[in-house]
Amino acid sequence: MNLKIGVIKGDGIGPEIVTEAMKVLDKVGEVYGHTMDYDQLLMGGASIDVHGVPLTDDTIRRAKDCDAVLMGSIGGDAKTSPWYQLEPDKRPEAGLLKIRKALNLFANLRPAVLYEELKGACPLKEEITEGGFDMMIMRELTGGLYFGERKTVEENGVMTAYDSLTYNENEIRRIAKRAFDIAMKRRRKVTSVDKANVLDSSRLWRKVVEKVAGDYPEVTLEHMLVDNCAMQLVKDPKQFDVILTENMFGDILSDEASMVTGSIGMLASASLNETKFGLYEPSGGSAPDIAGKGIANPIATILSAAMMLRFSFDLDAEADAIEKAVAEVLREGWRTIDIMSEGKNQVGTEKMGDLIAGHIA
Ligand code: IPM
Ligand code: MG
User: Is 265 left (phi over 0), alpha (psi -120 to 50) or beta?
Assistant: First the structure.
């Protein structure tokens, strides 16, 4: 099979971690007889440096021409990088929001799994993590506060800023369906997270989710307020199977969920639309503080590449092979610095990529 993959290496640690994911993909191609046809695309700061904007229309067009896009990370140090002297809609993050909208990537899947081998890196007490946990956060990605109207104006001499949070029933229904579909392939439980005790958008969210649940009698639905969910994630993460939530809540809760797995460097993600097309990226940021040092953890990006093979190309055996290779390398005791613990072998980004690629057979 020929896989046409757009590659956005991006900023900060992006180029380092994506290079390792491509190494692993190339090895998969070799072993399973696929050819990888990469189109390198610029986004974020890397695009600002060349084009003056974080995402060009030409890049969107080329991304649409691909079957899937693999991405590293975008953004720099907001205090020191000249990118942050630009207007907000010209900064690196604006490129990411724009590509999500342009490609209609409304469903963001962020799996948070506690690997047996990484229990030591988990900040929670052992009695809480006993038996591990495995949840999927389904974050709505193209609506809500991040895409609502915003403005900053002076009103009666007082600077005032507005951000609006809007959801219509269609947007809620399509993401809810995705959550229930994936729950059917898992442990059949959906926890829908909202703030229905305060927000109208959450009250509509709850109503629509309940209606969708009617079509999935085998799935248990529960509603949870977002503040309670933040607490439950550290108190009893095992209770969660699929967490369904709106854009901003999902942004915040997915960072929290990643930390209880030990490191954000382990968390993959997929952003999907109605077709097989997807954008795959690690959930973590560009980590400018460690960029170029060769120490970043490439595993989240490598696992994102596995999600890409699974969701966009239906290559389950190949995706399984990558996930298995990651588990084996961890079992053998290899660690990047973020997940390092006593008695293990610390390696850098490149070596971690070599090890994982070496386990693909
Ligand atoms: C994420 C990031 C982005 C988001 C930022 C960079 C705009 O935090 O993917 O979680 O908030 O969606
Ligand atoms: Mg985030």
Answer: alpha
